[in-house]
Structure formats: structure tokens, C-alpha cells
Amino acid sequence: MSSLDHKRPNPNMPYLPYHGISGSWLTPFLVCVCLIATIEPLHAQTNQSTPSAQDVDVLNLSSGAIVLSHSGQYDEEWAALLLLDDTVEHGWSAAEGASFPHEILIELQQPTALDSIAFDNSTAEEADYPGISARHVEVWVSTDGPDTGFSKAIVREAAQGARSVFSFPESTPARWLKLVIKSNWGHESYTELMELEAYGETSGNADSRSTISGVYDTNYDLMRIEQRGTQIYGCYDYRGGTLTGSIDDNVAQFEWRHKGRDEIGTAIMVLSRSGNQLNGLWYEDGQYQGLWTGSPAEGGEQPACTIPTDGNIAQSLSTSGRAIVYGIRFDVDSAQLRAKSEETLRQVRSVLNDQPDLRLAIEGHTDNTGSTSYNAELSKDRAQSVVQWLTERGIDADRLEARGYGEKQPVSTNSTSQGRALNRRVELVRQ
């Protein structure tokens, strides 16, 4: 981690207006079932056990969690959203001199019976700023709504400069979680927390928003998104950007490109249940670059950009010779195509039909979970499934080649769940 000295504005960085998470509490239109949670005494015994690899962190952007509001943060580089990024390389810091308590409101993807929660101060800047780690913390939960029905579920003391895992006294139902930081370990000006995790059993399906389609005012100018089935297409005014990808359980993954520039990357975004907020992270050359957040544009504002009529696939193949495709989905550890892949596959077929001389390599890519040999075989089988789907629908097999690269060509980090999700993909390469 860089020291807090690096939090000062960098005059060499271009200014990008930030219209993301507000410090005020929002009131989405949400109705659920009320809950009474158990209150635990302060300084309870820390459970230092680590969740198993099979457990899914529900307080994670790739799991559909989203920060609805917070009482303050230092800046975008130390944003509350970075508590949900599955890495301690980035984290949250209160503004200089901000008074306690600090509050952060998080919406979970679906109702969850919480079993444990972790507060990670392991990379807090204790060496340069002794006592900066968050200390006394409270967790409040609700199944009623983001601004009602909260009960105190747990009160604990997070370890200084280390990761603490605590078990809830009993399985605790939650859909909204409010973190309240009451104190730090003594630093007078700053408080940090690097990561927040929670584990438990989810119930039911995620509440699918009717659509992510719309115009959003983001920190990268106005953005227009169209959703067709599970496929999304879009554009944004910053540097003539375009995007294409897919949305699954309200988590959108896409490739972005800037017009006339050699700038291509990936991003992951979550839409709040109310549809009022987008929380996202973006990557370039496989590395995290920053937040991408927004809310519906007001007053009928419209971006100047237009969405390519053929999506980004044909455009990407024309300009760079390859296209990342996130809308092609497979069953877990399988080459079986999911039904929700149909929209994207039809678009690939349409591009091939429109360009009879086009020949494509269909590349399968995985994250680094599992052995290298297993991932190579799985990725080749998945690419072959795409080839088979296309040939069964009239595309000449001589125009297609299946290739499997496994984990060898990541487009993002494999150290976070968001990065691993972006690495699991199909790519099309012009031959």
C-alpha cells in the first residue's frame, strides 16, 4: 500500500468528475420481511478461523453486493466500494479529521443467513500512521429495507493491523448490512479498513431488475446501456467509448473500447435493486485502474454517443482483429452451453453471415482455479461447444477453429473474484 501522503491530489492525473456514491442515505423502493437480530457484547472472543475455499463472500462486488451510501471517505482511491473488491491492495479511509462514527450501508444480492464476518486491517498503514486501523465495529442488519428495520447483530473489536474473523452467535438473516465504525486504534486524523467479508447461506434467486437499459451519469461522462436478453451494449461520451458484454444475476461484465485509441479493457458493474445506482471497477492490461460508478441521468440528459448497430463484436474484429465475448455462458466445470448464451451466439452467427469471407478462431479462456492442464482442456472443450453451435446453424466448419488457452492469457488479475470472473471468457480472433 502507498502511504497516506499519496492520497493528496495528483496534479498529473486528469480530473474526472465523480457522480458516484452519495454520502446521504438513499431510499430505494424495497419490501421484505423484518428481523430481530442478536446483540453481542463488546470485546467478544475473536474467531480466527478462515472460511473454506468453497465459501462465497457475499460482501463482494462479483457476488452482487453494492454500497448504497456512506458517511464519508477520503476520495475515490480510498472509497467505501473498495471494501468489496476482494483484495487488501485497496481499501477505505475516512476523510482527514472526520469524526466517529463512520457508517457504510451495503445491499446484498439476495437474502442471506449470515454465519461469519471478517474485518481486514492487515495492510492498513500502521507503520507510518500508528493506530489507523478500525477498532470498535458494529454490524446492523435488516431484511426490511435499506432505511428501516435494522437491528444490531454484532459488536466486536477488530484487530490492529491484522485480519479478524467473527462468527455470528446464530445464523442471522440479512439483505442489507450497515457497518458502523465507532473508533480506531488511536490515530488522530485517519481511520482505515482494507476489506470487509461475510459468509453464509443465500436463499432464493437474486431479484432480477427489469433491465439495466438506460442513460447513466457516471464518472466517465454520460453512458447509454441497452440490454437485449442477457447481452448488454453501450456507449459513453468519454473518449468515444463503447462497450459490449453480458449481465447475469444483476452483475454486468463487459469489454470497453475508446474510439481511435489503442485503449481496450474490461469492467464489472452491479446495479442496485432500486435501479438508482451502479457500482463498478474497471481494468486495463489486466490491472485494476479505478471505480466506475453512476446513477440514472436526470432531466432527460442524453449522451452524444451512439451504440453501434452491430454491437461491439463486428467493430472490434474490424479495428483490432479480436473481440472479448462475455455473454457466452457455460455450466460450472463443464463445456455445456447455458440457454442464456443464445443472444450472444446469435450475434456471432450474424456477424459471420454478414461477412462470408470472415474466418474466426474461437478461443476459450479460464481463470487459474484448478490445474493448468485441466483448464487448458476445459477451455478447448468450451471453444469447441461454440464451434458446434455455429456449425449446427449453418456456418461452415472450415471457417472456424476452436482453441483453448486455459489460464495462460488473463485480461485481469486472478487474485480477486472480480478479476477471475473477467478472465473466464470466450474471445473471437479474425484469421
UniProtKB/TrEMBL annotation:
Location relative to the cell: Cell outer membrane
GO cellular component: cell outer membrane
Pfam families, sorted: F5_F8_type_C (PF00754), OmpA (PF00691)
Keyword Disulfide bond part of the UniProt annotation: no
InterPro entries: Bact_OuterMem_StrucFunc, FA58C, Galactose-bd-like_sf, OMP_bac, OmpA-like, OmpA-like_sf
Domain F5/8 type C positions: 53-201
Xref: PROSITE patterns: FA58C_3 (PS50022), OMPA_2 (PS51123)
Classification via PANTHER family: LIPOPROTEIN YIAD-RELATED, STATOR ELEMENT OF FLAGELLAR MOTOR COMPLEX
Protein name (database record): OmpA-like domain-containing protein
Source organism of this protein record: Longibacter salinarum
Lineage, broadest ranks: Bacteria, Pseudomonadati, Rhodothermota, Rhodothermia, Rhodothermales
